[in-house]
Amino acid sequence: MLRDAFAPPEGLNELVRRFYTNWFALDVSVRDLFPPEMDSQRAAFAHALHWVYGELVDQRAEEPVAFLAQLGRDHRKYGVLPTQYDTLRRALYQTLRSELRDAWTGSVERAADQSLNLITGVMSGAADAEEGPAWWDGTVIEHTRVSRDLAVVRLRLDQPLHYHPGQYVNVHVPQCPRRWRYLSPAIPADPGGGIEFHVRVVPGGLVSNAIVNETRPGDRWRLSSAHGDFHVDRDDGDVLMVAGSTGLAPLRALIMALSRFAENPRVHLFFGARYSCELYDLPMLWQIAAHNPWLSVSPVSEYPRDPSWAADYPDVSPPRGLHVRQTGRLADVVTKYGGWGDRQILICGGPNMVRATKAALIAKGAPPERIQHDPLSQ
Ligand SMILES: Cc1cc2nc3c(=O)[nH]c(=O)nc-3n(C[C@H](O)[C@H](O)[C@H](O)COP(=O)(O)OP(=O)(O)OC[C@H]3O[C@@H](n4cnc5c(N)ncnc54)[C@H](O)[C@@H]3O)c2cc1C
Ligand code: HEM
Questions:
Q1: How would DSSP label each residue in 28-82?
Q2: How far from 7 is each of 10, 44, 65, 79, 110, CA to CA, in Å?
Q3: DSSP character for 204?
Q4: Residues lining ligand 1, CB < 6 A?
Q5: Of 253, 256, 238, 282, which Cα lies nearest the Cα of 348?
Q6: Could you read off the pLDDT of 214-227 as tens digits, one per residue?
Q7: The pTM of the whole model exceeds 0.90
Q8: Close Cβ partners of 68 (under 8 Å, ≥ 6 residues apart)
Q9: What whole-number distance in Å separates Cα of residue 144 and Cα of residue 169?
């Protein structure tokens, strides 16, 4: 019953919409924490609660409790107050009660009470118990426009952030208050606090445009702790990596981490973009490949010729003798060589590219359980 209340329908969950209206009316301090547009937040909240209730109904408490504890620790970066957990619990209780109307029996009431106490109790308890930093602040020290729609941003964090290569963090930039976005560090964690991001403009996108067009040295960014499970198992055979544009970032961090070892599984990286002039990091990748025989790099561009604005940005054409650029969609080019079924497969890039490449690889026989990719949205 409670799980179904949060089942995401085609459109947005009406109950969640009403919940936020009730919560903001009950506690005005909460509204200011959220950005004006709430669609993706409502979807994320509904999705989280639907999953948590599903697990609880099936009598699996361990994973949801661990998830809620992590969510509570992570929520510290939003500056959440303990009293806000109390108003959330009351607003959600009232919303459920009026939503379920005739179905609101004594047993449903008890289940709602217990589950809401559990959810808010675990989140706030874990947040209180956590002694590590709630966030990491850092200063932009370099912003390089590597192509028309792409920027490489380097920061120095006030204190180092630990993460595994391949993980991503939530990022808040001064141009876009309260709008957090995920970005993947493009280098392994640096004990000196250095960190690097590669950002591509998404058409109409608020934060990506601000980062690529408006970020300046001296800007102060805020980062969350790291998430994600992208990894290469050095004992689990050869590796296929497929990177679309800035989807290169976490794969590059993994490759840099691997390059500390003399022996590695073979890694074949397909790095794709619309135009070959947008393959911004090829010179760096070739340098790594030149010194590490386990790495091969195949550049792929969707279109055969560069646009006129290519002349305004650094030349990234390959040195002679290295892999020749191929033309086409990444999904088609990669699967020309088969399903890569014997490889660990890591795909990273825009959601459409990841979906298409994954489907094409599976159609060619790649086992789905060997394919890794990050969540496709926030
Ligand atoms: C785990 C993870 C890691 C990420 N790492 C990076 C990274 O290292 N570098 C990087 O540049 N981006 C990365 N992203 C994407 C990034 O978080 C933002 O979603 C993206 O920059 C768009 O934000 P925005 O505010 O500009 O767009 P919004 O204003 O949020 O959205 C504008 C429109 O663009 C669509 N949209 C949103 N994201 C994308 C996308 N990625 N591709 C195509 N359309 C999109 C939205 O649906 C919406 O219609 C990552 C995303 C995830 C989930
Ligand atoms: C005091 C209580 C809470 C406050 C003040 C709060 C606030 C916020 C804010 C400000 C965001 C970022 C929104 C954005 O970037 O657009 C967020 C994200 C999110 N919240 Fe909460 N939240 C609370 C409790 C909860 C609870 C109980 C759940 C579910 C069990 C939840 C699930 C999520 C999820 C899944 C996200 C998106 C992922 C993330 O950014 O962490 N939140 N919340």
A1: HHHHTTS-S--HHHHHHHHHHHHHHHHHHHTT--HHHHHHHHHHHHHHGGGT--H
A2: 10, 12, 20, 28, 20
A3: T
A4: 168, 181-184, 197-200, 202, 204-209, 246, 249, 350-351, 374-375, 377-378
A5: 253
A6: 999 999 999 999 99
A7: yes
A8: 52, 118, 119, 122, 123, 126
A9: 21
Beta-carbon contacts of 277 under 8 Å, excluding residues fewer than 6 positions away, are 147, 306, 307, 310, 313, 315, 316
pLDDT of residue 378 exceeding 60 = no
Better-scored residue on pLDDT, 236 or 58: 236
Q: Which of 23, 33, 41, 63 to mutate to test the pocket of ligand 2 (most atoms within 8 A of CB)?
A: 41
The structure tokens listed for 324 are 């020749």
How many residues does this entry show for the chain? 378
Tell me the one-letter amino acid at 102.
Answer: D
**Residue 365: both structure tokens together:** 């026989």
The alpha carbon of 68 and the centre of ligand 2 are apart by a number of angstroms equal to 11
Q: Any residues with CB less than 8 A from the CB of 198 and at least 6 apart, and which?
A: 150, 151, 152, 153, 186, 246, 248, 249, 280, 281
- Please tell me if the CB atom of residue 48 comes closer than 6 angstroms to any atom of ligand 2: yes
- Non-local (6+) Cβ contacts of 112 within 8 A are 2, 93, 96, 97
